[in-house]
Design goal:
GO biological process, one term: autophagosome assembly
Shape: elongated
Protein name: Immunity-related GTPase family M protein 1-like
Pfam family, one: IIGP
GO molecular function: GTP binding; GTPase activity
Strand content: 5-15%
Helix content: 40-55%
Family: Belongs to the TRAFAC class dynamin-like GTPase superfamily. IRG family.
CATH superfamily of the largest domain: P-loop containing nucleotide triphosphate hydrolases
Length: 397
């Protein structure tokens, strides 16, 4: 049974703090783009990663975005779509509108203001006799990137359920209150009080259901230049860009992290062998300063490489250097108590004692030495991931 909505003329307080995360279902990173980034990382050339990311951005800027417009039947979804597109009801390609239910199946419309963005006019939740669960399945909610929930007169529990499903998918949604012109023509309180009451009541309903703070716009489809319509367009433009680039950033981060992890595993398997030490000129495995320089070079986060990246990004090298926990051996030992203890005087004394114990002593020393190197490698690996995330974010923004 549908629960009654709160009165529009009853103002209620409602604090919110949380935010809705973006979804992670996109895969807009092309195979050639991923291969270029993998190759750059394998070659220890972070500056080439920057170039590959910039090339990928050209594709991401026009990646398709699908926006679904949904709500209860009779709330003016089709009229809103026409207003948002800047098209009159009688014009060619306008969404059909009328007193009776006019949208029976999902219909998509182009959006001249936003290239490669499709607006999907979904049938209202009361357009058929199916349950809300069936409606969600038939409308294939998972395929849309952003939702606009249309409401007027009251914010019903059906709309609350729609919002909860969308939030559960990790996707952003707006609540657009249409027919504001009618509300203003019949209101018995001041205009400012009416607008506040509408927003507060929607927030209270969603807060009572444990929802995140909604983004609410109050509009009239008869005049897209008034009320919140201009702000809606501006917000939509920003969020379309964020959806595209956020998805790209996640794809790039996943690709980079996989390459780095694979490389770290390979090095850990080789670590301690004579061939490993000979190849990289590590004459003394206990010389952690030398090991640190080698690891920096292997992952392309040495000073020379960072300087190249900084120049390419137009930033000072210190901006990347200062976020590293492995800037130098002193920084490492200061920030990692376990590694610091393993290299203090007490540990050196323990090594000297163990060296006098046949077999067991040598095995223990070999294990402790290997632990030192693995721990140092782990710190450099995490630094590499941190620097790459910053590089990716800087390149996108």
């Amino acid at each position: 049974m549908t629960q009654p909505a709160l009165s529009l003329h009853t103002a209620l307080p409602t604090p919110f703090t949380s935010a809705v995360p973006y979804h992670k279902s996109w895969n807009i990173l092309s195979k050639p783009g991923a291969m270029n980034i993998e190759k750059a990382l394998e070659e220890r050339k972070l500056v080439k990663v920057v170039s590959a990311v910039r090339e990928t951005l050209k594709t991401a800027s026009s990646a398709p975005v699908s926006i679904a417009v949904t709500g209860n039947s009779g709330n003016g979804m089709s009229s809103f779509i026409n207003a948002l597109r800047g098209i009159g009801h009688g014009e060619k390609d306008a969404a059909p509108t009328g007193v009776v239910r006019t949208t029976q199946i999902p219909i998509h419309y182009s959006f001249s203001h936003f290239p490669n963005v499709e607006l999907w006019d979904l049938p209202g939740t009361g357009a058929t006799t199916q349950s809300l669960e069936t409606y969600l399945e038939e409308m294939q909610f998972s395929k849309y990137d952003l939702f606009i929930i249309i409401a007027s007169e009251q914010f019903s529990m059906n709309l609350v359920k729609l919002a909860k499903v969308i939030q559960g998918q990790g996707k952003k949604f707006y609540i657009v209150w249409t027919k504001l012109d009618r509300d203003l023509s019949t209101h018995v309180v001041s205009k400012e009080q009416l607008l506040q009451n509408i927003q507060e009541n929607i927030r209270v309903i969603l807060q009572n259901e444990g929802m995140c703070e909604p983004i609410i716009f109050l509009v009239s489809s008869f005049d897209p230049s008034l009320h919140d319509f201009p702000e809606l367009r501006k917000t939509l433009h920003r969020d379309v860009c964020e959806i595209r680039y956020h998805a790209l950033l996640e794809n790039l981060s996943d690709t980079c992290e996989k390459v780095i992890n694979d490389k770290a595993i390979t090095l850990q398997r080789q670590m301690g062998s004579e061939s490993f030490q000979d190849t990289f000129g590590i004459q003394n495995a206990d010389h952690l300063g030398k090991c640190l320089n080698v690891y920096h070079s292997l992952f392309g986060v040495d000073d020379e490489s960072l300087q190249e990246v900084a120049q390419s990004m137009g930033k000072p090298m210190e901006e990347y250097k200062t976020i590293m926990k492995s800037q130098d051996l002193h920084t490492v030992l200061t920030g990692d108590w376990a590694l610091s203890w393993m290299n203090c005087n007490t540990a050196s004394y323990l090594y000297s004692v163990l060296s006098y114990i046949p077999i067991l002593g040598n095995t223990s020393i070999h294990y402790l030495r290997g632990w030192n190197q693995r721990r140092l490698l782990d710190i450099v690996v995490e630094d590499t991931k941190t620097i790459l995330k910053k590089i990716l974010k800087d390149a996108i923004t």
